[in-house]
Amino acid sequence: MISADQVKDWQILIVDDHADSREVVSFTLESYGAQVIRASNGIEGLALLKSAKVTFALLDLSMPGMDGWEMLKHLRHDRQTADLPVVALTAHAMEGDRERVMEAGFDGYLTKPFSPMSLLRDLTDVFNETPGLAERIKSRSRHKRTI
Questions:
Q1: Average pLDDT of span 36-45
Q2: If DSSP states are collapsed to H, E and C, what string results for 92-133?
Q3: What are the pLDDT digits (tens) for 63-114?
Q4: Distance between CA 47 and CA 138 in Å, rounded?
Q5: Where are the chain's structural domains?
Q6: Dist. CA 89–CA 16, nearest whole Å
Q7: What angle do CA 52, 45, 102 make, to 5 degrees?
Q8: Gyration radius of the chain's alpha carbons
Q9: To which H or E segment does residue 35 belong?
């Protein structure tokens, strides 16, 4: 189980072409002590991952340049990032979208708009609902903690 106290051990990559979304997610998670790295598309996100070790990534699905779908394919085909937990953060909220996202290989799914007040709880729910994901997040945290 992920606790709010563990957030300070996280380094998160957020990839979203909407600056407002990046800033709200960043501000919210940074207020709990997380470090956040920002990119506006998949090309920038992949470049940032060459020099940063992150705990997990939040990817928007629809972006210019390289969208979240394509970035996920690159991540999964690279040995350095193949096991990186990746959560879709998307406005795609129609029936069947969650299943399509999960079948593509994402580890979780959050819809926009989201509430800054519930973002951490929603992320924790995703981590706890996906088998093994909470443990993967813990093992990728910057500082190993005993629980």
A1: 96
A2: CCCCCHHHHHHHHCCCEEEECCCCCCCHHHHHHHHHHHCCCH
A3: 999 999 999 999 999 999 999 999 999 886 667 788 899 999 999 989 888 8
A4: 24
A5: 4-140
A6: 8
A7: 105
A8: 14
A9: strand 35-39
What pairing do the DSSP bridges indicate for beta strands 35-39 and 108-111? unpaired
Across the beta sheet with 86-90, what order do the strands follow?
Answer: 35-39, 11-15, 56-59, 86-90, 108-111
For the domain spanning 4-140, the CATH number is 3.40.50.2300
Backbone angles phi, psi at 135, to 5 degrees: -65, -40
Pairing between β-strand 86-90 and β-strand 108-111 as defined by DSSP bridges: parallel
Rounded Cα distance, 10 and 95, in Å: 32
Q: Give the amino acid at 45.
A: G
- Helix, strand, coil content of the chain in percent (nearest 5): 45, 15, 40
